[in-house]
Amino acid sequence: MPETEFKTVATNRKARHEYFVEDTLEAGLVLTGTEIKSIRAGHVSLQEAFVEQTDGELWVQGMHVATYEQGHRDNHDPLRPRKLLLHDYEIAKWLDRSAQRGYTIIPLRIYLKRGRAKMEIALAKGKKLYDKRETIARRDAARSVDRALSDHRRGR
């Protein structure tokens, strides 16, 4: 399997609606056996997930990984914090940038790359309500232009 191939398991669809994404980074995840099996089955949600710093390390909080159905008494806690695997210089750089006013680190998606679970995280700045309205208006305008062009090509 080539390096560039990956299978997206879950995405945080609200992230780009709620935030301006400035920069992205790929991070590995520390998982248990039942967690990776559940992620491969697609039983993961990033809706309430966020990234926080604890003792110089980045941790994903609020990511829901459903318990593995064939698991036994050693099944994992669905909402336990999970450590992100990054180089020290990357952690220092991202923590420095996220310390600026209004910036936060959010998870965008989880995917499988060469059999390993990876998470794409983003340095993001929260949108105001008027920014969200502007984004929606821009998207609606682009959609109506595309519709008009396709109608014109069809000769309507």
Describe the protein in words:
A hairpin with a 2-residue loop joins β4 and β5 (57-61). The chain has helices at residues 15-18, 33-40, 88-98, 129-154; strands at 6-11, 19-29, 44-45, 50-54, 57-61, 64-65, 82-85, 103-113, 116-126. The chain has 156 residues and is of the alpha+beta class. The chain has a single domain, classed as Small protein B (Small Protein B, Chain: A). It is built from four helices and nine strands, in the order βαβαβββββαββα. A seven-stranded antiparallel β-sheet has the order 1-8-9-2-7-5-4. A two-stranded antiparallel ribbon has the order 3-6. The N and C termini lie far apart (46 Å).
What's the short story on this structure?
It is built from 4 helices and 9 strands, in the order βαβαβββββαββα. It has helices spanning 15-18, 33-40, 88-98, 129-154; strands spanning 6-11, 19-29, 44-45, 50-54, 57-61, 64-65, 82-85, 103-113, 116-126. Strand 8 (103-113) and strand 9 form a beta hairpin.
- Quaternary organisation of the protein chains: single chain
If helices are DSSP runs of H or I spanning 4 or more residues, what is the number of helices?
4
**Radius of gyration, rounded?**
19 Å
Strands in their spatial order, largest beta sheet:
1-8-9-2-7-5-4
| Strand percent estimate | 35-45%
Residue windows where pLDDT falls under 50 for at least 5 positions:
none
CATH fold-level name: Small Protein B, Chain: A
The coarse silhouette is globular
User: Overall pLDDT, averaged?
Assistant: 85
Indicate the CATH class: Mainly Beta
Summed up, the domain count is: 1
